[in-house]
Design goal:
Length: 465
């Protein structure tokens, strides 16, 4: 019997970043040539048989060899480095705040992913296939400002309900690919410094969903996360929220273990940091300079604790919530989560549990902007001096017209695939939905509608004077 033809495609992931350190990971996905000539990703269950491994990527992956990550000043001098021979990630310490670096990953003396990249791209035969794509990694990073210095103007992106996968020849696949191209352009050309995930990072494949993906194995994550965003996630970190399709809320199995592994949640947030509260649930806050705090809230169901219904109701998280939303004098505290507090529909209703638990905290902390996903469209609600933006259409999309505009205090909405470009500049935040790229790589800024069908041009401006 002829041995199968196997291709190993190497990946690099800038998992986390602060003003003084970076968490860099590396891994690979494996593909088998089919009799038709097409490539198919090797399922996790067949990895031991075909390549002698059990994992591809993530915090728990077995090593590929002795590895060193070097961060270089722009003149090529090694500024900091770290090595390991028992895992596929390292923290690199000793970096300077708000500084540009290049970096490289070397495994057993060879530069990891140093050549031409093979990507899942449209094929002349129809659909898509794995091909040499003429692209290479551009491994650059800029550290965050020191947390005690005034926050400089900063841009970040937010994507929600995106993980439908790009391998199938379907409209949802094309939507995710189109928005992923926007993410890549924002990072490469518009100085976007990080990405917030608003949840539903990988969807299951039943009932017509793309790729038959459940999110519980590494191979599920190839076309939903690592492939479409590969160049962007090598340069900026992604900070995830948990969605109902990442847990047991909407699926037959809870994918949190795989979420924790591929986003390195345990290493980033499970070390007793005052900034995080985990297990059960995922709550953490980030400081970008002295004036901007981003707070991730886990709004999913707790299916194991009979005392509570939602994770944010758990006694274990009340101290974290109180500290995160205490009056601090910081100009911007921006919560982000999967489920929205306000939505006009068409598929979901106002969330009374979230409103009861969180609105008093938001009021105490002076919150002016709240980001969420879950509803597969774009919505803006304004209530009690706060702006609530729903962005749940970076892969999924529902084009039905919402019906509860008045109840949700809706001022704008739209039914197009998009992401959010968020620009924080002193007392002002500009939120721009971007639906794609125009010729020449220009951003296609998405207009919205009022409940009376009047056009709303971006950006949405929120002030905190």
């Amino acid at each position: 019997m002829t041995a199968p033809e196997i291709h190993r495609e190497e990946f690099i992931h800038l998992v986390d970043l602060t003003h003084e350190r970076a968490l860099v990971a590396w891994g690979a996905f494996f593909f088998e040539r089919q009799p038709s000539g097409r490539w198919e990703i090797v399922d996790d269950d067949r990895l031991p048989e075909l390549v002698g491994r059990t994992t591809c990527i993530g915090e728990g992956a077995e090593p590929f060899g002795t590895a060193t990550v070097q961060l270089l000043d722009l003149d090529g001098t090694v500024a900091a480095e770290a090595s390991t021979d028992d895992r596929t990630w390292v923290w690199v310490d000793g970096l300077r705040p708000d500084t540009d670096y290049r970096y490289r990953v070397v495994v057993d003396g060879q530069e990891w992913a140093g050549g031409e990249l093979w990507d899942w791209v449209p094929s002349e035969r129809g659909g898509a296939d794995l091909q040499a794509a003429g692209r290479r990694y551009d491994l650059r990073v800029r550290t965050w400002p020191h947390p005690d210095t005034p926050t400089p103007p900063v841009r970040f992106a937010a994507i929600g309900d995106y993980g439908v996968g790009i391998r199938a020849d379907s409209e949802s696949s094309r939507r995710q690919r189109r928005i992923a191209d926007v993410v890549e352009t924002l990072v490469a050309e518009h100085d976007v410094r990080f990405v917030l995930s608003l949840g539903d990072n990988v969807y299951q494949g039943e009932d017509g969903r793309v790729d038959q993906e459940g999110g519980g194995e590494d191979d599920d994550w190839y076309s939903s996360f690592f492939q479409p965003y590969r160049l962007a996630i090598a340069r900026v970190p992604v900070f995830p929220a948990i969605g109902n399709h990442d847990s047991a809320d909407a699926e037959g199995s809870d994918d949190r273990a795989q979420m924790e592994d591929n986003f390195h949640i345990r290493e980033r947030f499970h070390h007793g940091f005052e900034t995080a509260s985990v297990s059960p649930g995922l709550f953490y806050r980030l400081r970008y300079g002295a004036d901007l705090v981003l707070a991730c809230l886990d709004t999913s169901l707790d299916t194991e604790d009979e005392r509570i219904h939602r994770y944010f109701q758990a006694p274990e998280h009340q101290d974290w919530l109180a500290a995160t939303f205490a009056p601090s004098g910081r100009r911007w505290v921006i919560p982000f989560s999967h489920h929205p507090l306000y939505t006009a529909g068409p598929d979901h209703e106002l969330d009374a549990e979230m409103q009861d638990a969180l609105l008093p905290l938001f009021a105490r902390a002076g919150v002016r902007l709240v980001l969420s996903g879950h509803e597969h469209n774009f919505q803006v609600s304004e209530a009690d001096g706060r702006c609530y933006v729903v962005s749940g259409a970076s892969g999924q999309l529902d084009e039905k017209v919402p019906s509860r505009f008045e109840e949700a205090h809706t001022t704008a909405w739209g039914a197009q695939a998009h992401l959010l470009l968020v620009e924080v500049d002193g007392p002002q935040v500009r939120v721009t939905p971007v639906s794609g790229l125009l010729p020449g790589g220009l951003l296609h800024r998405m207009t919205a509608l009022t409940p009376r069908n009047e056009i709303v041009e971006p950006p949405i401006v929120v002030r905190n004077d």
